[in-house]
Task: structure prediction
Amino acid sequence: MTTHPIHPMTTPEHRNTAVDPALWRHGWYRYARVLASPNFGPRPANALVDLIVIHSISLPPGKYGNGNVQRLFTNQLDWEEDAYFQRIRGLQVSAHFFIARSGELWQFVACTDRAWHAGESSYRGRTNCNDDSIGIELEGLEGSRFEAPQYETLAGLCAALIQAYPIAHVAGHEHIAGGRKQDPGPGFDWILLQNSLALPDRSLPEVG
Ligand SMILES: [Zn+2]
Result:
């Protein structure tokens, strides 16, 4: 379950020679539990990965710690287990990362590859945000608050991403797919994330 996959690189490792081999190996983060998802593809050639997209998810909504998100991202979810699952039956999605309520970090797709988290989207003048973003799912519910260990893990992960990729923006799914998505919602503390990473205002969506 946690064996490290040998993953063919579909795009060159980011040109930044400062990528720390102690933290990253072909787009896999050292401090994440690896559970490889089949739901990914190559990024477009020369994709500029400059956006982190924050999401929230729980299955069924509001139920935590049951492994269902990990099952969804690996096409292992039992659609019959809960009535809610009928609404997402057959869905094939993924994110690069998932942060559980405990702060535990999972990775499903190499950051060098394109995960399927954003859907139809646009931000900073570009569409199809899956092409050139990193998707991070927080275990949670739109409108609810998140746990301190989740922010701690998120801050450490974002710092490592900023070191390895030319990240210029951090936004919520609600900001890149407005009108269609509401996650992570008003329970997410953007100011806390901004302060912990010392991000300039221009890197964040206009919030609060
Ligand atoms: Zn989302």
